[in-house]
Structures are given as structure tokens and as C-alpha cells.
Amino acid sequence: MKLYISADMEGVAGIVHPDQTDSKHKEFDRSRRLMTDEVNAAIAGALAGGATEVLVNDSHGGMTNILIENLHKQAHLISGSPKPLSMMQGIDEGADVAFFVGYHAQAGTLHGVLEHTYSSGSVWQVSLNGQPLGETGLNAALAGHYGVPVALVTGDLAVCREARELLGGNVEAVAVKRSYGRTAARCLPIAQAQRAIREAAQRAMSAAVHPFVVRPPVTVTADFAKTRHADVAALLPGSRRPNARRVEFTAPDALIAYQALLAMLRLAWSA
Ligand code: ZN
Question: Does pTM top 0.85 for this prediction?
């Protein structure tokens, strides 16, 4: 069984503030150790549950967060950015199941720690075929394009709810913290969080989960925070501009929709 892990940072126990996820901040070294340890807990559980190969994709910020010297010795690591499939780089290299570790709720979620959708500053909401989705849903849709189901999501309580609603009750969802606000949460003791992730990861390897498939054609709708973001995102060839802050693109499949979204986001960040 080949396991693919996309690892973000905002959903890790102990992390509640953007400073902690910023590579230029003094807190960052603690955060990357906490992140690496949660990924290791997921890997240990998966190996106990039958995984034979593990590929980890570092998916936060500059994507050079995970400490390879501390990463489980059986795991391969994709590090760095930009990369063609961003948070999902490597999903096209063959996987039986995917885990999302350290994830956060979509932009606009009440009581979601550090909630956002790819960008805190420029994205209001992203939808596929009219359904608003966060990173969990958008990344699961790309995994689904390759026939890969998501079996484990870890993060705060809000992203766990989002994952179960979207991916079904059989997805293992581990809440390592509960939000009081966007930048405040009650966190599990670290050892308890990592044990819960390890146990859920082991169960997840035999969970009855199905790929999250978005039927083609796939229309990706990006509502940006400001008109100036949409002004540049609309430079994407073939896109439409229904209103000031919205850019839409209709793709023949979820892969091209994902690529179009990544291009729009990069353009918007430049505004
Ligand atoms: Zn992140």
C-alpha cells in the first residue's frame, strides 16, 4: 500500500498564530519540529496499518518546513516550491490512499484556527461546480482525479467537521485543538495529539473510503478579497469575469481546474 501525505502547518497542535507558521519568525523552529512529529505519528500508524511506501509532500508556505533529519526513516520527502501541483505534488506518482496532516478549515469558517483557502490575504472563497471548498476539498478533488481516496485528515475541530461532511463519515478525522477564535485554541497535550494521530492513521489504512470525484466539466470559481486581485487573476487565458471580485474557468477535468486555480492564485498574489 502506497501512502501519500500532504502536510500543512496551521492545523498542528500548539500552533494558533500566523507568526508561528512564518519562517522568518523566532517561533518557527518550534513549529517545524511539532509539524514533523505529527507527520511522523501519521507515518508510524500507517506503517502499522499496512502501508509499505510513504511519500510526504511539504505543503506549507515555502514548503521547506519538515526536518528531513527528523522525519521517519522510511518516508520520502518532497520539499520546496513552487512545484506544478503545489500542496499535492506527487499525487500523480501513484498512491493507494492519501492523508492530510496539519490541515485547517476553509476561508470564512467560524471557529477555524487560521482558516483560509490557499491565501489569507487574497482569497475570499473558491468553489468547484458551485460547491465552496477549502484546501481539504480542493486537494481531495485532485486526489480523486487520480482515483486516490483521502482516509485521514488532522487539524482543528472545524477542519474535521469539514472533512467528514465532504468525504463521508468513514474518513478518520483527528481534532488536535478546538478554536476560540481564528488565533486562539485549546490544544491537546502534544503526546496525546500524536497518539490520536498514530491510532487514527493505523485505522485509516483499512477505512472504507472512496475518492472524492468532481464530475467534469469542472468550473472553478475564485472570489477574491479585492477587485485588484481579480483584475490580475483574469489574465488567465480562457477565464471569465462575471463580477468585480470573481474569476471563473471551466476545465475538462479536475487536474486542469486545479492548474487553473494555482495560476489564478499566483497572479492574485502579485497584485
Ligand atoms: Zn499552511
Answer: yes
